[in-house]
Specification:
By secondary structure, the chain is of the alpha/beta class. Helix content is about 40%, strand content about 20%. A hairpin with a 4-residue loop joins β24 and β25.
């Protein structure tokens, strides 16, 4: 039967890559069946049906494209045709422009006009959840579509997309997680990587992954957007991809320098707080519109908000803005308002979000920058000076709707001395999670991966060591079975290792709750003005032996309250008890995700009965082995690799200070503090860190009572002594040396309790031969100890290393030859001396009827030296 396969292949839309592969495999199978003479009419009909369904689905997506309009006042609209042409003619396009140019909201629409989004989503990544939600809402509004239909978004724990969605906003972390199950990103036909200049770890890994993917997906289009921060670097990375410049809609910004004289570690207190208030007064008098103040973190935002409320209680609305705010609180920033606003923000508003109505900016010049030290193994969160690029981005936020004013609370000279760009995160973070993901995806070695900027080799080695510590990779850097399972868990590799260990310890039910808590910021709040009240409310959750059990108590109390309270009452409960409702819900979401993967794909064992203290904390120790500490002085602990630290004052163990502790993290601020602490037993360290501990042995010695050689053992982990002075059998350490010590001590020196015939015989024979030497005042007649050792060494097998193994062997050997170990005069005497006979050296002297016994001794200087009658 002749089949025109070519005609069927033309029905496959080239853009439908996933279907294309499946259909081609089916066609290959049909070819083989046709050659074998099989009837293939039915399979061909099924194939035709599937092809028709794919084409129908594609047609339906085309029909779902809404009417496209571009706001004329956005700079990107002027470049729309140029961008459209670049997308049609190139696989990769770099779109460069300041925040506010409209590229974030208009690029997905230009992609739709270019025919993208038909065979898969137009994926659009954002560095932060708050940006993904707000951008999705804005695009949906412009397309006059309900959110979740043509435009949806997916962030951690919330997916508001449908199979019919054309545009999908998400965090870059979500996209990376999807690569685990969608290796070639088949669900997307286009991807927009937004805010690439932020150079987060996720973005750098994603750009490397996409460079690997592009040759394997010729139908795939990639658009990388960046502020005007080194776009040429992105172009070079993607083989000189074209750059389309979009000039931002900016007005002149008056930069004013108001330097503050304050200590480096006191940026948000004292003089700087006063400087912020003075700057607000200055802007309030001169500049219309809202004010945006950049601060380094949540604590600084709360303190400044309190100062401003006391300073401007009536005519200004003060709004905080940071990633962990609830959706409702974040949405307030973008809603129309009548009062003048002062927005207090972290660097989330630097590039990711456009806060409307801003006409003035106050820049403190600092941000919390996460830095990891491969030497100390600490992840630090120091407050650092921002780069020039970040300072320029902040200043540009007030020049979008009219002339703006930016007050910098540092000098122009200070600005000029700052680095041009912020270090990419990949150069300042632990790479264990990246390496694990690469191994799981089969992307080869980190050194061969096409990173935009390769990480330091020392950081790579440190990431590898971290994975080897938790047995995720072996000595050859190959992924282990544990590593494969860890790559499927939605948590840090070390926390994932804790979950796997808890399944073996039969404590996974409790440990899953603890691990979920360690994956997010502490839900317990401690406002600066209500610290004592917060401490009192949190006291009932405290466990004096373990902060991890404190988290468990908090969880159980919250879950119990949830059974009886409505959502509004539950929020009130959280407020009264100084708990973050948002973080408590996030805790629940992470826990559900762990349960889903643990019970599903990994099939882990969750315990029904309650677990004991050790069963809960040993798994924690397995994942956090480098975080142990030994109490050295009154408040100081000595940790791994010589690190000295103290227990964080907020810990329940701050005053208890057990001898041995484990902590969830060690953070360096003004000092190195251990956070989330628990008491442990040193014996657990030996068991849990068996693959990492170093054993040293010293002082091998003979123990007559146990009839074996022994040695003292010292155990250390990462340079920290865990145990010392324990006796262990020498044969467990060095069987050959233990055998030699047994023969010399037990048989040659006769430090052995035995009534065996050979032992008695040899002892008497050696005593008689030695006495003969005493008579002749000689030292060369009887063989030395080495001769005796050789006698036994030649007759005793190598497996005999102690009294127990010797007796077992001897009893069997003497059944065949009872005299096997008995010495003869020839064995112990070098040469006979005939002069040493009874005539010349009698044992007694006869004088008449009197007989005097004679005793011989050869020891010059001794009173008995010579012959004694």
């Amino acid at each position: 039967m002749s089949v025109d396969f070519k005609s069927h292949e033309t029905l496959i839309p080239l853009s439908l890559r996933k279907d294309q592969h499946r259909f081609r495999r089916t066609l290959d199978r049909l070819r083989a069946d046709a050659k074998a003479g099989k009837d293939i009419n039915t399979p061909l009909e099924e194939l035709q049906t599937r092809l028709s369904e794919s084409v129908a689905a594609r047609t339906a997506r085309v029909a779902a494209i809404p009417e496209l309009n571009y706001p004329e006042d956005l700079p990107v609209a002027e470049k729309k045709d140029e961008i459209l042409k670049a997308i049609l003619e190139n696989q990769v396009v770099i779109v460069c422009g300041e925040t506010g140019s409209g590229k974030t909201t208009q690029l997905p629409k230009i992609c739709l006009e270019a025919g993208r989004g038909i065979s898969g989503f137009i994926g659009h990544t954002q560095p932060r959840r708050i940006a993904a939600r707000s951008v999705a809402a804005r695009i949906a509004e412009e397309l006059k579509q309900p959110l979740g239909h043509a435009v949806g978004y997916k962030v951690r724990f919330h997916d508001q997309t449908s199979p019919h969605s054309l545009i999908k906003l998400m965090t870059d972390g979500i996209l990376l997680a999807e690569t685990q199950h969608d290796r070639f990103l088949d669900q997307y036909d286009t991807l927009i990587v937004d805010e690439a200049h932020e150079r987060s770890l996720n973005i750098d890994f994603l750009l490397g992954y996409l460079k690997w993917l592009l040759p394997r997906r010729p139908d795939f289009k990639l658009i990388v957007t960046s502020a005007t921060i080194d776009p040429q670097r992105f172009s070079r990375h993607f083989n000189d991809a074209p750059i389309v410049e979009v000039s931002g809609r900016t007005y002149p910004v008056d930069i004013r320098y108001r330097p503050v004289a304050c200590a480096e570690d006191d940026e948000t207190e004292g003089e700087e707080q006063r400087a912020i208030l003075q700057a607000v007064d200055e802007l309030h008098r001169e500049s219309p519109g809202d004010i945006l103040i950049f601060l380094s973190g949540e604590r600084e935002i709360r303190e400044t908000a309190e100062s401003l409320r006391k300073h401007h209680p009536v005519d200004c609305e003060i709004l905080p803005l940071f990633s962990r705010l609830s959706n409702a609180e974040q949405e307030k920033i973008f809603k129309p308002h009548h009062k003048r606003r002062i927005v207090l923000s972290t660097n989330v508003a630097e590039t990711s979000l456009t806060v409307p109505g801003i006409r003035a900016v106050i820049d403190t010049g600092h941000a919390r920058i996460s830095r990891y030290s491969h030497r100390s193994k600490l992840q630090r969160l120091p407050i650092e000076k921002i780069s020039q690029a970040s300072a320029n981005q902040r200043a540009g936020r007030c020049g979008r709707i009219g002339p703006g004013v930016c007050i910098r609370l540092y000098s122009e000279e200070d600005y000029q001395k700052r680095p041009e760009f912020t270090d990419p995160e990949i150069l300042r973070t632990n790479l264990a999670a990246v390496i694990l993901q690469m191994k799981a995806l089969g992307l080869g070695d980190l050194s061969d991966f096409p990173f935009l900027e390769p990480p330091d080799e020392r950081m790579v080695r440190d990431g590898v060591k971290t994975l080897q510590e938790i047995n995720a990779i072996d000595a050859q850097r190959r992924l282990t079975e544990i590593g494969k399972n860890l790559s499927k868990l939605p948590v840090d590799p070390r926390l994932g290792r804790i979950l796997l260990a808890a399944s073996d310890e039969n404590s996974l039910t409790e440990v899953a709750i603890i691990v979920a808590a360690l994956s997010l910021q502490d839900p317990r709040e401690r406002p600066a003005d209500k610290q004592q009240a917060a401490d009192q409310k949190h006291a009932r959750f405290k466990d004096e032996n373990s902060d991890f059990l404190s988290l468990l108590k908090l969880w159980n109390d919250f879950e119990e309250q949830k059974k009886h309270l409505s959502n509004s009452k539950l929020r009130q409960y959280c407020q009264v008890n100084f708990l973050s409702y948002l973080r408590m819900r996030e805790w629940e979401d992470i826990h559900k995700q762990i349960l889903q993967v643990g019970r599903g794909e990994l099939n882990l064992r969750f315990n029904q009965a309650s677990s004991e203290y050790g069963e809960i904390h040993r798994p924690l120790l397995i994942g956090l082995l480098a975080n142990i500490g030994f109490k050295q002085e009154q408040s100081e602990y000595l940790g791994a690799r010589g690190l000295k630290f103290q227990i964080f004052p907020g810990s329940a163990l701050f005053k208890v200070r057990p001898k041995w502790i484990l902590c969830a993290e060690q953070v360096e601020t003004s000092k190195v503090y251990a956070r989330s602490v628990a008491r442990i037993e040193p014996e657990w360290v030996e068991r849990c860190g068996a693959h990492l501990i170093k054993r040293q042995y010293y002082d091998p010695h003979w123990e007559k009572k146990s009839a074996r050689a022994a040695v003292f053992e010292r155990i250390s982990l990462f340079g920290l002594n865990i145990l010392a002075g324990r006796r262990v059998p020498y044969e467990n350490v060095d069987p050959k040396a233990a055998r030699e010590m047994f023969i010399r001590s037990a048989l040659v020196e006769m430090e052995y309790d035995s009534k065996a015939p050979f032992f008695i015989h040899n002892r008497e024979l050696l005593a008689a031969a030695d006495y003969l030497q005493q008579k002749g005042r000689r030292v060369d007649l009887v063989a030395d100890e080495e001769w005796v050792y050789q006698f036994y060494d030649q007759r005793i097998p190598t497996e005999v290393v102690s009294g127990v193994t010797f007796e077992t062997w001897r009893k069997q050997a003497e059944k065949q030859n009872p005299q096997r170990l008995e010495m003869t005069r020839e064995d112990i005497t070098r040469k006979e001396d005939e002069a040493l006979d009874a005539h010349n050296f009698p044992d007694e002297l006869k004088i008449g009827d009197l007989r005097l016994s004679l005793e011989y001794r050869f020891e010059p200087g001794h009173e008995d030296d010579g012959v004694t009658a």
